[in-house]
Each structure stands twice: as C-alpha cells, then as structure tokens.
Amino acid sequence: MGEADAAELSSEEARDAFHDALLDDDPTALYDRAPCGYVSTLPDGTIIKANATFLTLTGYERRDLVGRRTFAALLTAGGRIFHETHYAPMLQMQGSARAIALDIVCADGTRLPVLVNAVLERSGDGQPAVVRTAVFDATDRREYERELLGAKQRAEASEAHAVALARTLQQTLIPPTPPTIPGLDVAAAYRPAADGSEVGGDFYDIFEVATGDWVVAIGDVQGKGVGAAVVTALARHTIRAAAVNQSDPSAILSTLNTVLLHDDTDRLCTVTLIRLRESGGTWSATASCGGHPAPLLTRAGAAPRPLSAPGTVLGVLPTIATTDTGATLRPGDSIVLYTDGVTEARRAGEFFGEERLVQVITSTAGAASDTAAALLDEVIRFQAGHPRDDIAVVAIAVPQAQGRA
Amino acid sequence: MLFAHGFGCDQNMWRHVAPRFEDRFRVVLFDHVGAGGSDVRSYDPARYTSLSAYADDVLEICHELELHDVVFVGHSVSSMIGALAAVEEPGTFDKLVMVSPSPRYIDDDDYVGGFSESDITDLLDSLASNYLGWSSAMAPAIMGNADRPELGQELTESFCRTDPDIARQFASVTFLSDNRADLRRVTTPTLVLQCTNDAIAPIAVGEYVRDNLPDAQLVLLEATGHCPNLSAPEETASAIATFVRG
C-alpha cells in the first residue's frame, strides 16, 4: 500500500493504524514471525533460507538446514516419493503447487503434518532460480481428514456390502438358470433396474409339482429393496405351497391374495400363473392373471395373442376376479411371460409397447432362449442401456420335432 | 520412438524432450491407463496387478500402430515396463532407454533399494491425503504460466484427472514390484540414465541395473532429482541422442 492507498482509508483511526503498522512491521519481522513457515530452496531442493516460524515448528537450528539439507530430505520416505513423483513435476510444469499434504520429520524425530504452497521463481532467461515454500501446521486438519477418510472408506465398504447382499438376495428370488422341463424349451431373462444395487420387485419361478405337472409364475411386487424382497419371498413360497393341493391357477392366486391380505404388508402384487401339464406326449397350458400382463401365445406361423383374460391385482380386495384359460400346445407353439418393465420401458415419452414386443417374439419364434435374450437386449437398448424398471421374461417353446415324451 | 511416463504424472513429462527427436523418428507418446487423458473405464483392477499388464499395453500400442525397431524411452517405473515388454517381444525393440530406473524399491538383504515396506505405506497415506484435498478443492491456482495460460489449464486438468483408486493401486504395484530377475533376460541394448541425488533411485541402483543387464551402459547426469526429463531436458535429450545415433 502506498500513500495514495492510505488516503483512501475511510477513517482517521484506520489511517493511524496503517501508519503504525508500517513503522512496526519491519520486513524482517514480517518474514521471520509470519504465521506460517517460509523456506526458500535452490531448484535442486537445497534449503537456502528458512524463517523463525519454520524453525520453531520443526525444532531445527538454522545451521542444520541452510546449505545442508534439501526440503525433500526433511520429509518421510513415503512423502519423498510423493514429492519426487507429483509435487516436484507439478512445480516444474505449472510453476506452482498448492495445498500439498506432507509430513515433515522434525528434529526430535516426531512427525509434523503440514500443508505446503510453493512457487517456482525463474531467472530472466527462464531458468528455474528459487522455490519459495509456505508451510502450514496441519496437525488438527490432518487428524480430521483422517477421520473423514476413514468414514468415507467405511461408507464405501458398507455400500459394497449392501450391494453384495442385494445380489445374494436377488439370486434366491430369481433362479440363476431356469430348470429343464423335459420335452419343452424354457428360457428366462432378468435384469434389475439401474445398476442392480437394490433388490428389484420383479420375480419369476418355474417348478415341478409332479411328473409332467409344472408351474410357471411371473410377478411384480410393488416397490424395491428389502421390504419388496420380503413380500416377493412370501409370494413365491405361497405359490409353491398352494400349487401342491390346488390345481387351477386362479385358485392358487386366490390363496396368495388371502395370504397377502393377512400379512402385515400394504404392497400390491401382480402375478401371472401358468400350469403346464403333459399327457400322452402333448402339453397343455392353463393360465390366469392377477393384475399382471397376460402371457402371449404364439401358434406356429401365427401372430402372438394373449393366452388369458385380465384379472384383479392381488393384496387389495378380499375376493379377486380371475379366469382360467386353457390351450393345447402343439409343436412350434410358444408362450412368453413378461413384466411391465418390458412394455412400459420408456424413451423420451415413448413406450416400448406391445407392438415392439410382438415384433421381437415373431422374429425369434420357436427358440425360447433367443426370444428371452433378444427381448431383454431390445428393451435395454431402447432405454439406452439404463433400464429404469426391473425386466423379467420367461419364454416356453414346444420343439418342432417333439418325437420323445 | 515410444516415450512412456512414470508413476504420478502423464505424457507431459516428455514435453521438453520428445519434440527433439521428431525430425528423425516417428515419436509416439501415450498415457498409461488411469493417468492423464486415458480412458479410466479401460482400467480393470483385477488385470493391473503387476507391471506385466502395463507391458502388454505397450506391446498392444506397438502392434496397433505397427511400430518396429522401436526405441523405447521409459521414465521411472516405465523403465521396467519397457524391460518386460522387450523380454516378451525382443524383435519389436531396437533400443531401450531407462531414465531413473529401479528394479526393486525395497531393501532386501544386501540389495539396497532405498525404501522399506512401511515407507510405501507412508506413500499410500500421502496419496490418499492429497487426493482428498484435490477432490474437495478442484480449483488449483495456476501461477507462473501467465504467458501460456492454456498450458497450466491443460496440465492441471490432466493432473486432477488421475483416478485416486487407480493411482493407489499403481503405486502399490510399482513400489512393491521386484524386477531384478528380469534384467538378465533383456537382450536389447540399453542406456541407463541416472541423476545425482535421486531420492527414489540412488546411483547404486543405477549401477545395479547396468551390471545386471546383458548389454547396457550407464550415463550419470549432472541433473538432480528423479525427473531429469523436466529439470534438465537438454542434458537428458543429448544423452539419449548420442545413444540412439551410436
């Protein structure tokens, strides 16, 4: 500040204080008793100057340092590597480095956590001349950072644990590979929403009740996470248990509805059930829908059509209205069950829709694994790789050359 | 000529050296995965558990660009990455230049690498502590390049872009590696450049590298520190030029 600046100070007191400071703060005191350590080094790191604050902080005598030690030599060995690989190159290339965290080994062997700022001064011809470094005691700050870092690491670990738990839970609700039904070609595809870190609400199950008597279930429990997973597990086990004594899919759905109502959950659930029975080498399918999209039956050479009529959502009303619809399956026929993550997949206000669904089914008809895989791929691609809802698909095809059974 | 940067920085480390060879060589620069402008998505923690994975990347670059009679110039850890690549495919390389190399950073019986395992733990702490600061204060001051502001900007961005997790693993892989036994298998003629007062690779380590390579010469630079490519680019470039000419 010059006289001109001083004149701009607002009050008489401020002007007096400014003049006092000018007289009292001689340059030596400004440097030596600055509220941070100052160290000047040659480009090779040799210390050529250090202020009193730095000596107090570190406990060194001026004669121990000046001309004798490099700044890097005062650091811990690990810090020296960081100095050589990060800090020095940065200083060389950028001409400065800021807020670098280092540990200085003090004269008594203790470690002093510091934050340093440094600038590289160049001579007239552009050659590095001197490095000026300001050193701040960062003991408390570093302790706090360590706690933060520890908290961050614990948070990351517990997140990883939660993701692993979700995956494990998901695998118990979704068979990793569907079972083989002798005489039928069965495939399934599943993809949880987003990154799969949360347990989804979609599920499917394929199980054998007796020889030649199978149940295929697909469903969607409202919501996500552990709460949804509990209801999903309940739904799966209820269906499995009910299917032993009850033959008609609608009766099984009715039992499930009762169980859901008596359970302490207010989550809705939609399920489509198909009972597959084999007799004399011919398979028949009986389907019922509880508020869930109807399965699509594709006769060899024909267009897909819904196999059953719509029905009531489960877990809301004491009685439900559902219908059992049967069909005899012939070689070349196929059935596709899916969740609304397929048809209601959205892209800029547009739905994937039934038309695209029918297209994929038609183009892959006859091969269950092709249909399931293609449908999943198309729906994910439709949403540019980021499905916002779970997607579940089960495809069943009657092979053309049945021959056996 | 293929220039490879070491741990902690990116290909900018060669900005004062590499251009001097452009008249006589096809000069190729790259960033190791995780550093500088590389695509961090290609980093697979399960793959980059040893320096061989980085050596494979070097060979991939050679194949992709159809490079032959390569003069490979590696700084710091990239010296060993180059050695591994040359052992794997000797036919691809004409010469190797190792700038401030060390085949083993940690002391082992009679061998003096200069560090102990706990020093490396210190380094990892130091990295964590500094990345913590960087991620929360992403506005580094750019001083000293007033005449070329774009330089500071570019460098700062590339420095800050180093992924902390990758840097941490690269540090472990680098400083815990032991490539002493690989040196004997390098048949490519090699120049070892060593600085005086290198806190990371002392002169004795440079001599060890020379003595254990079948065909090597050691040139001691007047430059100090670990990065002569930055602190003494002329001296470094001249030494390399003499070697590649000879």
Provide the descriptors you would attach to this structure in a database record.
heterodimer, A: 405 residues, alpha+beta, Beta-Lactamase, Phosphatase 2c, domain 1, 5-stranded antiparallel sheet, 38% helix, elongated, B: alpha/beta, Rossmann fold, 6-stranded parallel sheet, 14% strand, PAS-like_dom_sf (chain A), Bact_Sigma-Reg (chain A), phosphatase activity (chain A), Serine phosphatase RsbU, regulator of sigma subunit (chain A)
Question: How would you explain this protein's 3D organization?
Answer:
The complex is a heterodimer of chains A (405) and B (246). In chain A, 38% of the residues lie in helices and 27% in strands. Chain A is of the alpha+beta class. Chain A has three domains: 1-28, no CATH class; 33-143, Beta-Lactamase (2-Layer Sandwich), CATH 3.30.450.20; 178-397, Phosphatase 2c, domain 1. In chain A, β4 (111-122) and β5 form a beta hairpin. The longest helix of chain A has 35 residues, at 139-173. The radius of gyration of chain A is 37 Å and the shape is elongated. In chain A, 40% of the residues are buried. In chain B, strands 2-1-3-4-5-6 form a six-stranded parallel β-sheet, sandwiched between helices. With 246 residues, chain B is an alpha/beta fold. Chain B is 41% helix and 14% strand. In chain B, α1 packs across α2 (77-88) and α3 runs antiparallel to α5 (164-175). Chain B has nine helices and six strands. Chain B has one domain: 3-Layer(aba) Sandwich (Rossmann fold), CATH 3.40.50.1820. The two termini of chain B are 15 Å apart. Chain B is globular and about 45 Å long. Residues 134-158 of chain B have low confidence and may be disordered. Classes of the chains: A alpha+beta (405), B alpha/beta (246). Chain A binds chain B through residues 43-45, 70, 72-73, 76-86, 88-90, 92-96, 98-103, 115, 119-120, 122, 128, 142, 145-146, 148-149, and chain B through 6-9, 12-13, 15, 76, 114-116, 119-130, 132-133, 137, 140-145, 151-152, 155-156, 159, 175, 197-200, 224-227, 230-231. Chain A: This is Serine phosphatase RsbU, regulator of sigma subunit.
